[in-house]
Amino acid sequence: MELIRDSIATAPGHLKHYLETMAGLDNVPRKEKQFRNFTTNSLNLSKNKGAENIVSGIWSHLKGLREKQLAERAEAQAKVKKGEDLVDTKSVEDDPIEEKVTSDDGKSSKGKLDAKTVKKAMKKVLKKSKDRSMTEKRLRKAVQEHLGLSKDSKSDIKALVKTTVASSKDAVFEVNGKTISLKVD
After folding, report:
1. Is the pTM of this model over 0.90?
2. Domain boundary assignment for the chain
3. Is the N end or the C end of the chain the one with fewer CB atoms within 10 Å?
4. DSSP string, 102-152
5. Region for 149 from its dihedrals, namely left if φ exceeds 0, alpha if ψ lies in -120 to 50, beta otherwise
6. 9-54 pLDDT per residue, tens
7. Chain segment 116-129, per-residue pLDDT in tens
8. Sequence-ordered list of residues with C-beta below 8 angstroms from that of 175, at least 6 positions apart, any chain
9. Model confidence over 142-172: pLDDT tens digits?
10. What residues contact residue 146 under an 8 Å CB cut-off, 6+ apart?
11. Rounded distance, CA 138 to CA 101, Å?
12. DSSP 3-state of 51
């Protein structure tokens, strides 16, 4: 949860240690009741007398930051709808890092993940596979590995593979149940 990592810098001193510990944990709940239970158990606060105060402090700090971020997003969307030009006040360090896509040729191109690169990767992977066919899940994983992407991009790959197969204009791919195969010319 990026919110937790971002909140460490602005957190009160007595909560920083707890937030640093939570930043290393996966699947931090977003709902208050589950968050309180998770925090109490994960940070071993159940025996601590001030545990409820600590958990409440963490929750209120994160809730305030979340509301601030949502307000900023809503304000930015309102400006875009009005047609005003947005002035980018972020520094270069705040800009999102683009994925680095590497092909088998050793060439690497820096760019965003799009349907075209996924389609090319799917073709290459299917050409190398036995019978030029794979199950959808194995194909997704192979494409992800072929492009050198992290596991964080799993949902993006999943959506792009499905749309690529469904919208293949020249019917390059055949779908037979869960198996996707490359048409032979």
Report:
1. no
2. 2-82, 100-182
3. C
4. E-TTS-EEE----HHHHHHHHHHHHHHSGGGEEEHHHHHHHHHHHHT--GG
5. beta
6. 888 888 888 888 888 887 888 888 888 888 888 888 877 778 888 8
7. 888 888 889 988 88
8. 165
9. 888 888 888 778 888 888 888 888 877 667 8
10. 103, 104, 121, 124, 125
11. 19
12. helix
170-to-131, 134, 157, 167 alpha-carbon distances in Å: 20, 19, 21, 9
Confidence band, pLDDT 50/70/90 cuts, at residue 1: low
User: How many angstroms separate the CA atoms of 111 and 43, rounded?
Assistant: 40
Task: Copy the structure tokens of residue 12.
Answer: 């009160």
- CA distances (Å), origin 18, targets 21, 46, 75, 89: 5, 14, 31, 31
Q: How far apart are CA 141 and CA 145, in angstroms?
A: 6
Query: Could you count the other beta carbons within 10 Å of the beta carbon of residue 83?
Result: 6
Span between the terminal Cα atoms of the chain, in Å: 47
φ/ψ of residue 53, rounded to 5:
-65, -40
Rounded Cα gap, residues 154 and 142, in angstroms = 11
What tokens appear for 86 in the block?
A: 């947005």
User: How many Å is the Cα radius of gyration of the chain?
Assistant: 23
Q: Is the pLDDT of residue 57 over 80?
A: yes
> What amino acid is encoded at 13 in this protein?
G
Return the half-sphere exposure (C-beta side, CA atoms, 13 A cut-off) of residue 48. Answer: 13
